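Sanity check

After download, print the first record. It should look like this:
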Amino acid sequence: MVTIAERLEALQHLRQLMDPEREATQSLIRQACAQNPWFTEEDYTYTLAHITQSYLDNEQLFEFAANYRLFDRAASLKTVGIVMAGNIPLVGFHDLLCVFLAGQVALIKWSEKDEVFFPAIMEEWNERFPWIKERIQSVPKLSGFDAVIATGSNQTARYFEEYFGKYPHIIRKNRNAIALLEGDESMEELKRLTDDVLRYFGKGCRNVSMLWVPKGYDFSRLFEVLDLEDERILHHKYKHNYDYNLAIYIINQIPHLVANQLVLLENEAISSRIGTLHYCYYESISEVEEWENQHNDEIQCVIGNIGLNGLTPVPFGQAQQPDLSTFADGIDIMRFLLKLDD
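Expected structure tokens:
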């Protein structure tokens, strides 16, 4: 049996392989971005920097493993199927990491939108640690598993529920982040907010897709920050969505606000189209808290300086930088995995 110490050692080698400064890694980034036009080299590099600095930091991994008493547990014989999403680069890496740390076997169904980078990294990783081939396996279709972690849209989630419902499972649907502004945010905070909105073209579950702003809020400072940089709007697929949505609003005479990289629409729906951002006005925080109570199953996190209903806010600019203990949808994956052995 492979010990937790051996798994942690292997993860430190993986950290070196995924270093975005490594020449071979940069080549794989270019290949992954060529395969999926929604991926940019900047975004892929950003993702890898976060993974290597937060998820694969040896000290943080050791503490994480100790918190779940992994040093007192033998490697498991359980097999966990993972259905990877492909909306942003390596979006399912945290799931894979948790299964690996738990000592279980991971069967991975890669998304066709992101099936270039990590399988290639796996080949290098296996050369150094051949036993990993038995612990992490890529498969075209999941079978022979004891539990499942599947991430997709609301539509695919219904299929997942039907197909995987009889097994222990975590099935994720669409979620987004919201931001709560107080009106006195600094220009630097607003600049960081734009990254929370536009990183990965807004396609991630932790991207801000809706703003709550105080009644009478002046959007001019936010627009000033949005207009400072224009690299997103230069991307042909993003610009096509931006132009299409703007045309729809104009043709249908739907009131809207136009910024250089976003079209803003007053709308209570959390999820917004690519190239758009929803907003709502509030007079008191209690209004927002009441609304949040009704929509908490659609919200991944709250960005800002104040939380809602006891939720700890995520600082501006850190929406896409969760730590090891920040679990998607608030479901503790490690506890789920470890219960499989009980």
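If your output differs, re-run the checksum step. Summary of this record's structure: The chain has 13 helices and eleven strands.
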